[in-house]
Predict the structure.
Amino acid sequence: MAIVVKMYSTETCPYCVMAERLLQSKGIKDIEKIRIDLEPGQRELMIDKTNRRTVPQIFIGETHVGGFDDLTALDRNGKLDELLSPVKD
């Protein structure tokens, strides 16, 4: 079973767009986007899961990666590819 990449986002969030582009550059074609601006109840779920109020909030499988800064830090450290490898298989 493939790992799912999930991202809590809003329409106007530039960091969400940059996170999506980074993931796409890593070969991730399908990102399950949860728009908290369209589904207000999802915002509360996001906060409960992450203890964070800002978007994006990114999950790779069950692993909470964090936001865009966290995602780019993982990429710089070479750990993002490890997390994504089961997704691309």
